[in-house]
Fold this protein.
Amino acid sequence: MNKHKALTIGLFGFGVVGEGLYKVLQQTPSLKAHIKKVCIKHPGKARNAPADLFTTEKDDLLFDNEINVIVEVIDDADAAFHIVSTALHQGKAVVSASKKMIAEHLLEILALQQQTGLPFLYEAAACASIPVIRNLEEYYDNDLLHGIRAIVNGSTNFILTKMFEDKLAYGEALLLAQQLGFAESNPKLDVEGYDALNKWTFLLTHAYGITAQPDDILFTGIQNIQLTDANVAKEKGFDIKLVAQAQKLKSGQVAAFVLPQFVTKDDHLSFVRNEYNGVVIESGFSDKQFFYGKGAGSFPTASAVLSDISALRYDYHYEYKKLYHHTPAELSNDFYLRVFVSFDKLNEVPKDEFEWIEEWHGGQERSYLVGVIHFEKLVAHKWWKHQGISLIVTPQPVIEDIEIRNLKKRSLELAGII
Ligand code: HSE
């Protein structure tokens, strides 16, 4: 795109993010980008912008030759994919914040970008104001990227903070997250981990060249976490966070999952409260780096959309370096996880699936254990997703084969068996 050319935007969606972008663009005239039309679903709603800006006809934007940028911030994944593919076929650059759509249609989107050569940018789709995609894409070499741990969903982090630090009830905390514009229109997507999973799906592409489907990644949300779990965490000096994790194994394959996690007080993620997100990157030579910023909300998300629009000026597009220029990594299920599991009287935990159990507490209402289990067993049997069972991984949860044999031996030695 010619750097002096005007950016004429067709915007899809005028919700929390769309309206935020409209306001932010009014305050950044130097960008020389203006919204020509906004396509909305419900024309009856009162909106803080001139009525003639709006249409309900998507083709008014997609087939307008003056519009050279489509910005799509709607929450219907199928409609969003139709908009993105039509816009790219029409020769328009596209900026999107639709994480579900990107996760579910990643392969088609990669093909569309190759076919059209046009930029499709989506920094706002993960961690809102934190420039995580561009950093993973541009800065980190796959071979040196040992691992990433991240809080990628603002609503669940907000709810956990409000419940366990500010003592709000779950319903109150969720309502607040909805009122503040952090939650998805269907908050089940946040609470049950789907939103974090979607974001993790394409962040793995930028980090490691992995092109997984959301179904390929083990996940759950915070729906089963109990106050008693938070009390156990407190006793042990931990916080509970919903953490997306990827770790390079000795085989070169990658262990990846999205699960609640106990984090120690000196973990950078412990510092991440409310709707903030955080990303801890471990890479060779640089050790740990921590990215922190607001992960949800109108202006933080709009700021990432704005940055993508601005990047179009210099023809920025993702090169998907780890996928096209390196040997892409593969996901592995061949490792062990150290987990905490708490469960009520109505549920049994299949103890024989564990390699060993380190701690066991039988309680009146709930019991819990800490043990080591092969990841494949969690993939194959989903008992840990049942209502009444909560599974939380411990700090440094990934254990590889060689270590487990040593640990086993040590525990047997300690028990005086060998
Ligand atoms: N519902 C999402 C969250 C919005 O809470 O993180 C930002 O993607």
